[in-house]
Amino acid sequence: MRNAARVPINDDVLSRRDFDRLSAYIYDKAGIRLPPAKLTMIEGRLRRRVRANGMSSLRDYCAWLFEGDHLEIESEHLINAVTTNKTDFFREPKHFDYMVETALPRLRSEGKSRLRVWSAACSTGAEPYTLAMVLDAFARDQRGPDYAILATDLDSEVLRTARRGVYPASMLDPVPASMRARYSLRATDPKRSEVRIVPELRASVGFAQMNLMDERYPVGDPMDIIFCRNVLIYFDKPTQEKVVRRLADCLRPGGLLFLGHSESITGFDLPLTTVANTVFART
Predict the structure, then answer these.
(1) Per the residue annotation, which of 21, 33, 45, 163 is the catalytic one?
(2) Which of 242, 258, 272, 273 is the most exposed place for a label (fewest CB within 10 A)?
(3) Is 201 helix (H, G, I), strand (E, B) or coil?
(4) Does residue 45 have an active-site annotation?
(5) How far apart are CA 96 and CA 239, in angstroms?
(6) This prediction's pTM
């Protein structure tokens, strides 16, 4: 009888035990749920960390993390690797229409001379720079109010990109032509299809690392406007409610919270009232 062919063993996969340990740590650290359906995606993202640490397999990497006492050393890279950073300029544009048509005129009529705005989970910076364009254009047209933007994210790598303010030219296609001309600069080398946000706009945005799982958000004085869009979808319901409550605590009375169009706070006991689709005011 012919011997059966030996099936090669692929060590470069996560065991269920290692996936469960990683999932538990990431949930505890970042609040991100990693269901089993995410296994293949997580394997692909973590292989870069395997190579960066000079290892040969995911099994070795997980042993190094959990049995070699290197978890805290590697924590920032691990969280960066599994974080999803989907972002666009003028994403969900109805929110910016509401800003220009309703929110900013109201705030100006209330006598606000300077607005404090926070872009939480800002990713590579498209959202805070969009906010800066909208706020700056309104201030120019209406002679105020002035503004300052805080932009935060857990991922240190995307914050480096955001601070540079350099993007593929095609990424700014959703930006109105007049704003592209005013607020971005094309690369002098025509082979580099890149643009950079103008220095004056970059200076209006302060970037900082922040974890939405922290018990308190050290943002200083109460905010007039907070954008925290398309991040709650990665949290379970109890975590969503805790995060939104902390965000509401950072708003002044009447301040506005913008969530993603697919996100809901229905059933949560929060000091917020709906004023537009996924726009809420602090009561």
Answers:
(1) 45
(2) 273
(3) helix
(4) yes
(5) 27
(6) 0.86
